[in-house]
Amino acid sequence: ATAALRFPPFLSSRAAPKTTAAACTRRTASATLRVAALPESAPVSAPASTSEERPEFSPPAGFAPPVPKRFAVKDGQLASVAGAALALPFRLGTGLFVLGYSVSLVSADKIPSDQYSLEFLGLKVKETSKIDQCRRPEKPIEIYEFEGCPFCRKVREMVSVLDLDVLFYPCPQKGPTFRPKVLEMGGKKQFPYMVDPNTGVAMYESDAIIKYLADTYGDGTVPIMLSLGLFTTITAGLAMIWRVWKGSSYTVSKLPPQPIEIWAYEGSPFCKIAREALVELELPHLLHSCARGSPKRQEIFKKHGLFQAPYIEDPNTGVKMFESAEIVEYLRMATWGYI
pTM for the whole thing? Predict the structure, then answer.
């Protein structure tokens, strides 16, 4: 089970970063200033004005999560899904499968009915991987990035390959909260920027981050499509060409007390559409990677009797839901409180 995460008090509103002497003093105490989620048990002092800085978050009156429909595209969404799916041929499916993924067909009685698996011609698909042989981080890795950046996409693909849980802090253009924090922490407004609370490592540069993740939480190997230098960056950019402005610019919103949790993976066009909205609204989110071969698919299957991505759980409102188009609508509902 994932421990609940909360933000430090100084992130309870979209206030511009201060440059006072007190703020400079706090900079020396990285545990206080660093933009990191705090365990629910950690003491969090309330801001001076809770009515203005800590708004109430609740779903709209009468809101009901949609019934999940596998492989269905909502009316009017076909162009968006098709544009997001262009990444698959350009990136040759990188991010669709976890490390060491393999598949075989077995008779239906070989896999219990309460275990997630695909069915094909009366047989079941048995999926295995090397993930259970890799070190797992105790705390979520923190990454500051935005959806429309090819360098950021490269790192997200590696996150999917390694089946990592990552606390993403979106940094869209003109975003008031996390872009300034990256400058404060690392000295450069450059993305992606990674902080690993498990090792104390913090770094820029997508290729360096990918190699670090491979060495620390994988078997040391980097997938071929992430190791081709300039070609990797060009194809990562081409993968987003039809949605290049999506997930890049800030839309005014309110910062919720806790990050939204999302089960998703980089190779899915449906997941991309949901994450674009999270980034544009600058909503921090704890991503549970669940590419093919991920054991986290079984977690969702056990809860709901099916697996489908994206899937979100919002600890601020209690809403749990599937369906990418409806997730985007939910996040953008002005009457709800995020915008």
Answer: 0.84
